[in-house]
Amino acid sequence: MKNNKVILTAAITGAVHVSSMSPYLPIAPEDIVAQAVGAARAGAAVVHLHARDPKTGEPSSDLKLMRQMVSAIKEECDVIICITTGASQMMTVQERLSVVPDMKPELASCNAGSMNFVLAGLVPQLTDDAPAWEKKYLGGTYDNVFANTYQGLDTYIHTMQENGTIPEFEVYDAGMINNIAYFKKQGILKCPIYLQFVMGVQGGLPASVDNLVFLRGTAEKQLDEFNWSCAAAGRHQFPMITAAMAMGGNARVGLEDNLYIRPRVLAKSNAEQIQAAAAAAHILGREVATAEEARAILKLKGADRVNF
């Protein structure tokens, strides 16, 4: 194991789950901030942020909302703020990417290829009084492609590197590693490589230890040097992140990926999931990295060089 430190990420709210599924999913900016700070104090070195329309709960690309949140979090703690550029698969590249030149974060997500990202299976979980947009949004993914073309990836990578932002490549299937390797070989991707293996999404690679080993092995063959982490959807979250930490990788938990802390028991906060991940890390003999240690591992520019 190259580094005994494990970087824990909390994905605070995302653009998958909707408020009618859990009363604990943060929607309002102040609630997202509070849960991000709580997760940081529980051991998260990184918080991964999406914005939501505070009135409806819909995913939002509003830069004012995001700036309000990241500024408030930065005032409260020293956590690394990873801002999404996948705010919603229904948004344009311009909407999704606008946050990077505006705020110049240390870290931002970068979806590494196009895919069917299907959320329609969540529709039966909606309550009868759920807002109409929830069913339309989730159901609409059944006939939609989450587009991340080579031209789009080229734009993302150039924009991030120009602003000193390290891409956190979201890898949903092995072919996406080939995409990253292409940009590295072409000399377009010049910054340190950080991979987030996202498993168990309908349309992506199923969540299993065999598949996680396959992803890591493929990356080792295609990329010279990289850091990696694992996230997994729903009930797969804790088994997969525990396997990842046992393999020497990092781990992401959070209400974006899984609303539960154990079967049929809703997690009351992102901090609760981070505490559970930290406990698993300690059992495995891993030490939880501080934000400053994570910055050194991932070769980030530092919180003093962001634009918020």
| Arrangement of strands in the largest sheet | 2-3-6-7-8-9-10-11
Helical run tally: 11
Radius of gyration: 18 Å
Fraction of residues in H or I helices? 25-40%
pLDDT averaged residue by residue: 96
Q: How many domain regions?
A: 1
CATH superfamily: Aldolase class I
Instruction: Say what oligomer this is.
Output: single chain
Strand content: 15-25%
CATH fold description:
TIM Barrel
Q: Architecture, CATH level 2?
A: Alpha-Beta Barrel
Q: Regions with pLDDT < 50 over 5+ consecutive residues?
A: none
Q: According to CATH, what is the class? A: Alpha Beta
Distance between the termini: 36 Å
- Characterize the largest beta sheet: strand count, sense, and whether it forms a barrel: 8 strands, parallel, barrel
Q: What spatial form do the alpha-carbon principal axes imply?
A: globular
* Class from helix and strand fractions: alpha/beta
- How many strands? 14
Order of helices and strands: EEHEEEHEHHEHHEHEHEHEEEHEH
Descriptive report:
This protein has 308 residues and is an alpha/beta fold. It has a single domain, classed as TIM Barrel. It contains eleven helices and 14 strands. The strands form four sheets. It has an eight-stranded parallel beta barrel, surrounded by eight helices. Strand 9, helix 8 and strand 10 form a beta-alpha-beta unit. Helix 1 runs parallel beside helix 2.
